[in-house]
Amino acid sequence: MKTLTVSVVTPNGPVLEGEYEMLVAKAESGEIGILPNHIPLVSPLSIAAVRLKKDNGDKSLAVNGGVMEVNSNKVTILAQSAEKPEDIDVQRAREAKERAERRLKSKQDNVDHMRAELALQRAMNRLNVVSK
Amino acid sequence: MASLRDIKKRIDSTKKTRKITSAMQLVSASKMNKAEQNAKGYVPYSEKMQEVVANIANSNPDVSHPMLEKRKVKKTGYLIITSDRGLVGAYNSHVLKLLQQTIQERHQSPDEYTVIVLGRKGYDYCRKRDIPITNSILGIADHPQFSDIKDLAKEAVQLYSDEEIDELNIIYNHYVSAISQKPTINKLLPIENLHEHNGTTADYEYEPNQEEILKVLLPLYAESLIFGALLDGKASEHAASMTAMRSATDNAGELIDDLTLTYNRARQAAITQQITEISGGAAALE
């Protein structure tokens, strides 16, 4: 059976490379599933988990935004950060979540608000991936 | 001639200095290796990024985005990468000289340019000469993470999209090898030369559409170029520091040799003098 070659690359080096049967990512417009022989596609991703399927088990990655490119059975995800569940610092993510929530409650100006919201999304994303 | 004790003192202090500089050389060497690895680890990301951007630009020659379009240049931004510490030889002066030269060649008044500074040396230099500074980061780690400069990179790109500046250049020391670093100036924005990349072009489907993707992708691309230059600059910094410390160690060694020679001569002269005095005294008694 045909497979997809998936590589997830961040500024701090490659995070994951491997062959998978299916990939589900969350684009800004909604979830996208990629199967082998998908037509070439480029899409920005939102802060969410990317799920990878293989016959011997699934895998999730916490991807922090970025861009996905699909071309001739190669999927490349470029993100500013991406983590495997085992690499996530749960303690830190929890603290970040609480911090962001406190900031959202205190309602400051818009820039801070947006930043806090993004930080919250990132933290939730990490926690979600770990708890799966 | 200096007294024996004075020479001895100087030899001792030079030996201590040599110990320090040789230790610093070793530290820089190990930091340089790490920095070089960091820069290498970053290559896949920047290459992939370039590939994707070039793919999009190639498959649609008529793509338009503010960051791809040349505007009339009213104000130029310079991003310079310098070190926080001294003891790095000519590392900083190369970058700053290039900045000064470029400014002199291209601009008449300080309204026409602004500088974004990484590193204390560059910051102090610009402050002293009244060069306008828009933003700066001091005290960057030896092995920077992308998150360290994310905000600054974002702001630099933002300045361009807000039309505060119409061009962004980056000046840094390019790491050629451990013994050679080359001060380089690169035009970052507007993004040019995309079409030169010879990759396989494909007809892409864009989700949701091209404009949206370029809106996300091009800032990421520009930011990735800034971070790449920083990693490159850091590797150069440690290499320059290593070279500077090695020549300092060598010079200290030479100085010690010279001083030891003078010391021995002085010692011999003193002994000869004593013997002459004693034999002179003995002759007088006879």
Automatic annotation (TrEMBL), chain A:
<keyword id="KW-0406">Ion transport</keyword>
<dbReference type="InterPro" id="IPR020547">
    <property type="entry name" value="ATP_synth_F1_esu_C"/>
</dbReference>
<dbReference type="GO" id="GO:0046933">
    <property type="term" value="F:proton-transporting ATP synthase activity, rotational mechanism"/>
</dbReference>
<dbReference type="GO" id="GO:0005886">
    <property type="term" value="C:plasma membrane"/>
</dbReference>
<keyword id="KW-0139">CF(1)</keyword>
<keyword id="KW-0066">ATP synthesis</keyword>
<dbReference type="GO" id="GO:0045259">
    <property type="term" value="C:proton-transporting ATP synthase complex"/>
</dbReference>
<dbReference type="InterPro" id="IPR020546">
    <property type="entry name" value="ATP_synth_F1_dsu/esu_N"/>
</dbReference>
<dbReference type="Pfam" id="PF00401">
    <property type="entry name" value="ATP-synt_DE"/>
</dbReference>
<dbReference type="GO" id="GO:0005524">
    <property type="term" value="F:ATP binding"/>
</dbReference>
<feature type="region of interest" description="Disordered">
    <location>
        <begin position="86"/>
        <end position="112"/>
    </location>
</feature>
<feature type="domain" description="ATP synthase F1 complex delta/epsilon subunit N-terminal">
    <location>
        <begin position="4"/>
        <end position="82"/>
    </location>
</feature>
<comment type="similarity">
    <text>Belongs to the ATPase epsilon chain family.</text>
</comment>
<dbReference type="InterPro" id="IPR036771">
    <property type="entry name" value="ATPsynth_dsu/esu_N"/>
</dbReference>
<keyword id="KW-0378">Hydrolase</keyword>
<protein>
    <recommendedName>
        <fullName>ATP synthase epsilon chain</fullName>
    </recommendedName>
</protein>
<dbReference type="InterPro" id="IPR036794">
    <property type="entry name" value="ATP_F1_dsu/esu_C_sf"/>
</dbReference>
<dbReference type="InterPro" id="IPR001469">
    <property type="entry name" value="ATP_synth_F1_dsu/esu"/>
</dbReference>
<keyword id="KW-0375">Hydrogen ion transport</keyword>
<dbReference type="GO" id="GO:0016787">
    <property type="term" value="F:hydrolase activity"/>
</dbReference>
<feature type="domain" description="ATP synthase epsilon subunit C-terminal">
    <location>
        <begin position="86"/>
        <end position="130"/>
    </location>
</feature>
<keyword id="KW-0472">Membrane</keyword>
TrEMBL record, chain B:
<dbReference type="InterPro" id="IPR000131">
    <property type="entry name" value="ATP_synth_F1_gsu"/>
</dbReference>
<dbReference type="InterPro" id="IPR035968">
    <property type="entry name" value="ATP_synth_F1_ATPase_gsu"/>
</dbReference>
<keyword id="KW-0066">ATP synthesis</keyword>
<keyword id="KW-0472">Membrane</keyword>
<keyword id="KW-0378">Hydrolase</keyword>
<dbReference type="GO" id="GO:0042777">
    <property type="term" value="P:proton motive force-driven plasma membrane ATP synthesis"/>
</dbReference>
<protein>
    <recommendedName>
        <fullName>ATP synthase gamma chain</fullName>
    </recommendedName>
</protein>
<dbReference type="Pfam" id="PF00231">
    <property type="entry name" value="ATP-synt"/>
</dbReference>
<dbReference type="GO" id="GO:0045259">
    <property type="term" value="C:proton-transporting ATP synthase complex"/>
</dbReference>
<keyword id="KW-0139">CF(1)</keyword>
<keyword id="KW-0813">Transport</keyword>
<dbReference type="GO" id="GO:0005524">
    <property type="term" value="F:ATP binding"/>
</dbReference>
<keyword id="KW-0375">Hydrogen ion transport</keyword>
<keyword id="KW-0406">Ion transport</keyword>
<dbReference type="GO" id="GO:0046933">
    <property type="term" value="F:proton-transporting ATP synthase activity, rotational mechanism"/>
</dbReference>
<dbReference type="GO" id="GO:0005886">
    <property type="term" value="C:plasma membrane"/>
</dbReference>
<comment type="function">
    <text>Produces ATP from ADP in the presence of a proton gradient across the membrane. The gamma chain is believed to be important in regulating ATPase activity and the flow of protons through the CF(0) complex.</text>
</comment>
<comment type="subunit">
    <text>F-type ATPases have 2 components, CF(1) - the catalytic core - and CF(0) - the membrane proton channel. CF(1) has five subunits: alpha(3), beta(3), gamma(1), delta(1), epsilon(1). CF(0) has three main subunits: a, b and c.</text>
</comment>
<keyword id="KW-1003">Cell membrane</keyword>
<comment type="similarity">
    <text>Belongs to the ATPase gamma chain family.</text>
</comment>
<dbReference type="GO" id="GO:0016787">
    <property type="term" value="F:hydrolase activity"/>
</dbReference>
